[in-house]
Amino acid sequence: MGNKDKPSTALPNEIKQLQEELAQAREYCQALLWEQAQYQELEKTLQDSRQQFRNIINLLPDATFVVDKQGKVISWNRAMEDLTGVKAEDIAVKGNYAYSLPFYGERRPVLIDLILNPDITLPRQYDCLIKKEETLTAEAFCPKIGKEGIFVRISASPLYDFTGAKA
């Protein structure tokens, strides 16, 4: 008897195997789609939180800016724009002490840098430097603000992430 006369069970077994593999692939794809939806939802929540943070900073009546651990400007509020004449979009994500230019006309460490790096040596520019817990407060003359410069009272403090680590 040749192969043609033998009843074949291989084909139904192959179909059953393919159906099982297809069902597994479908479950895997559904899981990927669910994960993608979760990721998109988290991404939107993060974007909303960032925008809310920017809105809060912008509403502060005091001139305020925020720098990240690398010393890059991540927020520069409207009051800071009014004080310095520098628009937020012109200073955003700039590092290398760019935030000191509108105040002192040169790139150099300022009070916030002492928060970022406690071992840094600041120029002798601050009067009445006070440390209370993790907040530094001082007075300084900013020669580049206005026609003749101004004296300002400055405060600097760290920001923390959700784990309690310095952000």
Can you put this structure into words, describing what you see?
With 167 residues, this protein is an alpha+beta fold. The chain has two domains: 10-59; 60-156, Beta-Lactamase. It has five helices and five strands; from the N terminus they run H-E-E-H-H-H-H-E-E-E. The protein has helices at residues 10-59, 78-84, 88-91, 101-104, 111-116, and strands spanning 65-67, 73-76, 126-132, 135-142, 150-156. The chain has a three-stranded antiparallel beta sheet. The longest helix is centred in the first third of the chain and has 50 residues, at 10-59. The N and C termini lie far apart (79 Å).
The gist of it:
With 167 residues, the chain is α+β, with helices and mostly antiparallel strands.
Q: Uncertain spans, ≥5 residues at pLDDT below 50?
A: none
Question: So, CATH architecture of the largest domain?
Answer: 2-Layer Sandwich
Rg, nearest Å: 30 Å
Coarse structural class? alpha+beta
Write the layout of secondary structure elements.
Elements: H1 10-59, E1 65-67, E2 73-76, H2 78-84, H3 88-91, H4 101-104, H5 111-116, E3 126-132, E4 135-142, E5 150-156
Antiparallel strand pairs: 1-2, 3-4, 4-5
Question: What keyword list fits this structure?
Answer:
single chain; 167 residues; Beta-Lactamase; 2 domains; two-stranded antiparallel ribbon
